[in-house]
Design brief:
The protein is mainly α. The protein contains eleven helices and no strands.
Length: about 150
């Protein structure tokens, strides 16, 4: 199965394998609930959350984009919050490039549908960051923050 293979590539340790697999999973999860469900059940979420803490801003952005696509599926939404994605997503709002900030804001928007995730977001100091983004960020990022 292609999804299982790609999820195993996330854990391969190879930088090329990691980015290739994450990009492929991002595309497979885009507007496809069945693929979102399969990726979550195959264990793809924890390595993507680890990728949020990469030293590469591009990898952080790619992980945030993939998690944004996966977070549309409600079961994944809960898993993403439980495995610790919220703190690095909130950090990406401060440290990311423009695309990474937009992806982090969009993913956090999706995750906020779960009450446990919302509580974690508040405790991580998300509200002041969103207010800042609404006031200061370029238009497309401020729309994600809204």
């Amino acid at each position: 199965d292609a999804i299982m293979f790609l999820v195993s590539m996330l854990a391969s340790g190879s930088e090329v394998g990691l980015t290739t697999a994450a990009a492929a999973l991002r595309n497979l999860a885009c507007e496809n609930i069945e693929n979102q469900m399969c990726i979550g059940r195959a264990g793809g979420i924890p390595p993507l959350v680890e990728m949020l803490s990469s030293h590469s801003v591009n990898n952080q952005t790619l992980a945030a984009a993939t998690l944004t696509n996966l977070s549309v599926f409600e079961d994944n939404n809960k898993i993403i919050g439980r495995v610790g994605a919220i703190p690095p997503l909130v950090k990406l709002l401060d440290d990311g490039n423009e695309e990474g900030i937009g992806q982090a804001a969009a993913c956090l928007w999706n995750l906020a549908n779960d009450p446990e995730n919302s509580d974690t977001m508040i405790s991580e100091g998300l509200i002041p960051k969103l207010v800042y983004l609404l006031q200061e960020a370029p238009g497309h990022i401020s729309r994600c923050a809204a």
